[in-house]
Amino acid sequence: MRIYFEGPLFVIFFAMGVMFIWIKFRKERIRFFFLSSFFLYICLLIKYTQFPITLFLGNSFKQNIDEIINVVPFINLHRSPINYILNIFMTVPFGIIFPFIKKVNSKEKILWSLLVPLVIEGLQLIQFILTSYSERIVDINDILMNTFGIWIGYYLYRVLVLFVENYSKINKDIKRSSLVNFIIHHNKR
């Protein structure tokens, strides 16, 4: 039996989360926008990194742990370069959106850029331990690529903030939108 996180399950889970965010932040529309966007990103991240979950009922199928774990960095990078590129792109949105939700200093950036990939791969490992089967490989290279992707996102966030700040300085006679104000002032908190 396979469990998927899509269709009605995905929509219901996402809608409930957005309703909760709306109840808490309905007066802060821009904050609501960033929180909802981040929640959608997290839902998609869960969908593509943790599902489907396969359960073998009755006749159990078991994998060996060495079939699904790679702890040697940079081994077999040539086998599936597109997979590693996708692992980078998958976490770039985290690095861009997260600083709009929570101001993070350098130490926190390091912590979050390591924690997120470790949680993703750790949950895949826990899934294997609980079911004796995984459709995913717990791979140190995925952790490295995800971390790199988050750092690219942090960099793109900084570029966006600098662009908005410079744009608002050059165009002083143009009334700043609430989004521009949020980006500039959120960054300075």
Task: Describe what this molecule looks like in 3D.
The protein has 189 residues and is mainly alpha-helical. The protein has one domain. It is built from 7 helices and 4 strands. The protein has helices at residues 7-25, 29-50, 65-68, 81-101, 106-131, 140-170, 178-188; strands at 2-3, 53-54, 69-70, 138-139. The strands form 2 sheets. The chain has a two-stranded antiparallel sheet. Helix 1 (7-25) runs antiparallel to helix 2 (29-50), helix 2 packs antiparallel against helix 4 (81-101) and helix 4 (81-101) packs across helix 6 (140-170). The longest helix has 31 residues, at 140-170.
Oligomeric state: single chain
Supply the number of structural domains.
Answer: 1
Structural class: mainly alpha
How far from one another are the termini? 49 Å
| Rounded radius of gyration (Å) | 20 Å
Q: What is the helical fraction, as a range of percent?
A: over 70%
Strand line-up across the major sheet: 1-2
Q: Please provide the ordered H/E string of secondary-structure elements.
A: EHHEHEHHEHH
The tally of strands reads: 4
Poorly predicted parts: none
Shape: globular
Give a short account of the largest sheet. 2 strands, antiparallel
Q: In percent terms, what proportion of residues is strand? A: under 5%
Q: How many individual helices?
A: 7
**Arithmetic mean of pLDDT:** 89
Domain VanZ-like: 38-160
Keywords: Membrane, Transmembrane, Transmembrane helix
InterPro entries: Teicoplanin_resist-assoc, VanZ-like
Organism: Anoxybacillus flavithermus
